[in-house]
Specification:
The structure is a homodimer. Chain A has about 290 residues and is mainly α. Chain A contains 14 helices and two strands. Chain A has one domain: Farnesyl Diphosphate Synthase (Orthogonal Bundle). In chain A, helix 1 packs across helix 3, helix 3 packs across helix 9 and helix 9 packs across helix 10. Chain A is globular, with a radius of gyration of 18 Å. The model of chain A has no long low-confidence stretch (mean pLDDT about 95). Chains A and B meet through helix 2, helix 6, helix 7 and helix 8 of A and helix 2, helix 6, helix 7 and helix 8 of B.
Chain lengths: ~290, ~290
């Protein structure tokens, strides 16, 4: 159920992003934007559409928000890959934007993808409460959310001591957690409903996702993940795996999946696809 | 009248930006954001507040939008100054963000300032039509507005031929014009009024402003402008001055100021401060 739904979401969200980038100006920056929004798991878009469905909102009335969160995510990847940040040459099995074009194009393409995310969130198709969604996207993305996490990550690279478990958890809450929470609560926000169960779900899901990422960085197959692995260990960076051990990290991820599933109880069986998604985040190979 | 009003706007908008950045996280990125929003002419904020006043909207009900446009402008400066872009070491008489901190901090601070601009535009104090304002800000900032202009500027640096007058005009319409238009129409948008007279005003004003910038780059006093001058000529870049000559550029700027003033006729004497602002853009030394 989840796998088919995710595949359908991937197709639909790619269409929405392609449409949003179909304007005339054919400058390298726009090419780079189109390139940067190709591929990816689309888990954040899936969360938007599933949380919308839970609240009786059909895909077309939430698709712009699903595309928005993926544009926002794509911007963060383009900037994170820059030489002055994580300095990655490969992303989703392809050269990163600054490798394929140059750094100036990567900075501008990332900048314009962030703008596009906000523009998509303003789409009238999202209905009367879309201003609340834009507000939530801004809170999740900025210096108290995603950028905070990225800044803590950069700071950790030059810190004298490796991070503690609490510090890594805070870093992750910003770097990936904030956008997961935005995505999982988007439907509730558009419906004007209580967002708390989905916040609890997203908090556990985001953390489980990050732990799985740390495990993949140690045990993953680069042919499948499409990015360089083993980087954290090579850089001597603390991760959930370095702090908990591989078995401990796996156990913690399993507990978090159980927490995520439990948080969905108010929605009953209607939330089964979201439960499957939680199990997927820790079993994925990509 | 204009000079005092601008001075009051400078104080008020700085307070609003300081408040918006007064949250707890005291990481280098947040320091850099606070640093990047210090100083500046605040002409864009002034335009927001004056266009609001023209439509019966008092300063407190438009201040968040004034702060938003300055946060957006500050983000664009931080990224434009990066080594991979214009590579500037000095801005408003102070070291640029990547010089004072580092490139990673400058990328992230710029990113978070863009986010902050959208967050400020969502402020409930801006009233029921703020979603239209957010939409306008996104359109003005992205790959069909400000980023397009910046991308054309980067492309011009490596182009075989210097740009023509039409090409420079298009570049400028994106790079500075789009945000001027946003600022000058913000009040009309918040009031649900016709934006066309203010669009015409902003188009002429933005172009006059850019021509004045090009003249300052040739004849300005670095002690007053607080940035390195003579860069365009040194880089062999076409400017309004290189294409029209210094007298031709000055004449064109004067014509544009007359156009800008004429565009305000629907508002009568209520728009006199905006008329003064138009004259200021071409007489300024900063």
């Amino acid at each position: 159920m989840f796998a088919e739904r995710l595949k359908r979401v991937q197709v639909k969200v790619q269409e929405a992003l392609d449409d949003a980038l179909a304007f005339h100006d054919d400058i390298p920056v726009v090419h780079a934007m189109r390139y940067a929004v190709q591929g990816g798991k689309r888990l954040r878009a899936f969360l938007v559409l599933e949380s919308a469905r839970l609240h009786g909102i059909h895909d077309p009335e939430a698709m712009a928000a699903a595309a928005a969160v993926e544009a926002l995510h794509a911007y963060s990847l383009v900037h994170d890959d820059l030489p002055c940040m994580d300095d990655d040459a490969l992303r989703r099995g392809q050269p990163t934007v600054h490798v394929k074009w140059d750094q100036a194009t990567a900075v501008l393409a990332g900048d314009a993808l962030q703008t596009l995310a906000f523009e998509l969130c303003c789409d009238p198709s999202l209905g009367a409460r879309r201003i609340d969604l834009v507000t939530a996207l801004a809170k999740a993305s900025g210096a108290e959310g995603m950028v905070l996490g990225q800044a803590l990550d950069i700071a950790a690279e030059t810190a004298a001591e490796p991070l503690t478990l609490d510090e890594i958890t805070r870093l992750q809450a910003g770097k990936t957690g904030a956008l997961f929470t935005f995505a999982a609560t988007a439907g509730a926000i558009l419906a004007g409903a209580d967002t708390r169960p989905l916040e609890d779900y997203a908090r556990a899901l985001g953390l489980a996702f990050q732990i799985a990422d740390d495990i993949l960085d140690v045990e993953g197959d680069p042919a499948k993940t499409g990015k360089k692995l083993g980087k954290d260990a090579a850089a001597g960076k603390a991760t959930f795996v370095s702090l908990l051990g591989i078995d401990g990290a796996r156990a913690r991820a399993r507990d978090l999946v159980a927490d995520a599933e439990a948080a969905l109880s108010p929605y009953g069986v209607k939330a089964d696809t979201l439960r499957e998604a939680a199990r997927y985040t820790v079993s994925r190979e990509v």
